[in-house]
Design goal:
The protein has 344 residues and is of the alpha/beta class. It has one domain: Alpha-Beta Barrel (TIM Barrel), CATH 3.20.20.210. It is 48% helix and 12% strand. The protein is built from 16 helices and nine strands. The strands form two sheets. A seven-stranded parallel β-sheet has the order 1-4-5-6-7-8-9. The chain is globular and about 60 Å long.
Length: 344
């Protein structure tokens, strides 16, 4: 099957398919018992991400269980700050930690070119995944959008973003400089994934919420627009899915100004609102509540069918409105795929 015939790519190019293609954000991960066993083979999560053999196996695990229409690279958005020389580690049960930039009077950031060299194992993983995929399955490369990655770099952790938001007011020039480094490094990182075999890309703007319009323009829209533009300058022609979680009323501006090809819709955003924000014919991705994969049963069936109906008139990629949770069960995921593909 040629790349252009893969269901996911057909939809990204504006075609509506019935049933829609389906993949699941974080589909390789802790809800699978085989992943939890695999994870034990690496001393740290970053080491796992930088191991092409382990990361490739993690990607293939859900594809062996479920007839999904896409694989997504197993990595993490924080490999970028790690490659730029910022110390990154993961605390079991708590999440990522970084040495925060905010306490420092001057921010010393690495060179994008050196960062890409550090990330070479990631591109080897992409190559290995590509070799293992069945012909109809698309391969998605990804990165965190600049603002989301910056929030971790600034604060050294996830959670509340107040400190990072205050920095937009207190240190605007430093923020702009950080964004410039992240735009170039992320563009190079994504372009390398495409050269290694990625069929399309997704930008995770996981922390788009809570920003006033001027700040949203400065740290979400402008860096994303520059990133997409830089990717095109680098010769990247594949579709780009933007996922600005929590953008709310600023979703339309994001679509109109960033240049993304398709739009990921979060759980809180109604389909009608997304239709108003996106131009006619743009592929929309989402937006099942991840909690339904924990609950299962009739609640899952009802919610999944509601999503199918709500987005049925547009080019649609069935997905969640955020990543799958560790409490989800493989049985519920299997049931969901059957529902979407018409077998239940």
């Amino acid at each position: 099957m040629a790349d252009g015939e893969k269901p996911l790519l057909r939809v990204l190019n504006g075609e509506r398919l019935d049933p829609p293609p389906i993949w699941i954000m974080r589909q390789a991960g802790r809800y699978l018992p085989e992943y939890r066993e695999l994870r034990k083979r690496s001393k740290s999560f970053l080491d796992f991400c930088y191991s092409p053999s382990l990361a490739t196996e993690a990607v293939m695990q859900p594809l062996r269980r479920f007839p999904l229409d896409a694989a997504i690279l197993f990595s993490d958005i924080l490999v970028v700050p790690d490659a730029l020389g910022q110390k990154v580690w993961f605390v079991e049960g708590e999440g990522p930690r970084l040495e925060p930039l905010l306490p420092l009077s001057a921010w010393k950031l690495g060179e994008p070119e050196k960062a890409i060299q550090r990330l070479t194992p990631v591109y080897e993983t992409v190559e290995r995944i590509k070799e293992n995929l069945e012909s109809g399955v698309a391969l998605i490369g990804f990165a965190g959008a600049p603002w989301t990655v910056a929030t971790y770099m600034l604060q050294g952790r996830g959670g509340d973003k107040d400190e990072a938001r205050r920095a937009i007011y207190q240190r605007p020039e430093d923020i702009d400089a950080l964004m410039s480094v992240l735009v170039e490094t992320t563009a190079q990182h994504l372009a390398a994934q495409v050269r290694a075999g990625a069929d399309c890309l997704q930008l995770f703007e996981s922390w788009a919420e809570g920003l006033p319009p001027f700040a949203f323009q400065r740290v979400v829209i402008e860096p994303t627009r520059k990133l997409v533009q830089r990717l095109r300058e680098l010769g990247v022609t594949v579709p780009i899915i933007g996922f600005p979680r929590g953008a709310g009323a600023q979703l339309k501006a994001f679509v109109e100004q960033t240049g993304v090809t398709a739009l990921g819709i979060d759980t809180q955003t109604p389909a009608d609102f997304a239709f108003e924000a996106a131009p006619e014919g743009m592929a929309l991705q989402g937006n099942l509540d991840p909690q339904t994969l924990v609950v299962g049963g009739e609640a899952l069936e009802r919610a999944a069918r509601d999503v199918l109906i709500a987005f049925g008139s547009a080019p649609h990629i069935f997905n969640l409105g955020h990543g799958i949770t560790p409490e989800a069960t493989p049985e519920n995921v299997e049931h969901l795929v059957q529902i979407v593909k018409g077998g239940a």
